[in-house]
Amino acid sequence: MTFFNGSRLEELEQEEEQYIEFEIGETPYALPIGCIHEIIRVESITVYPNKRNDVIGVINLRGRIIPVISLRSKLRMDVKKHDRATRIIVLQDGDLFGLLEDRVNRVTSFDELQPPPGVSGQDGSVQIEAIGMSGGKLVHILQAARILRNGS
User: The whole model's pTM is what?
Assistant: First the structure.
C-alpha cells in the first residue's frame, strides 16, 4: 500500500472537493466528482477475449467503445448479478473507462479525510487514497488513475 505525504491529504481537505459515493456490497467508496464523465444504467456488456481479469467486457457509449472494470473483481469479492440499482460510473483518466458498482448513493463532501491505515494487502489491486466519514460510516476514497493502472 502506498502512503501519501501529509501535504496531499491537506490538499484534499482544503479543496472541499465533492465526491460520488457508491457501494460494493455493504462497503461505501467514493471517487472525486471531477474524474467522473457520467453515470449510466447497465445495458449490454460485451465480453471479449484476451482481457485483464478485472475487465468484464466493453460497452458502446454513443459510438465509443470503452472497457468496463469490476471493482468486485479487484476486491476479490464474489460476482453479483446486476439488479436495478447496479450502475456503471464512466471515468475519464485520459481515456474513458467504466467502473461497475452495486449502487450509487449520492454526491457528498467530507469535513475531514484521514490517511488509510497500513494494514491492507501489498498486491496493489485497489489502493485507498484516504478515508472519510459520511452518514456515520467510514468511506474509502479511491483514485481513478490507480484503479485503471493496477490491473488484476
Answer: 0.80
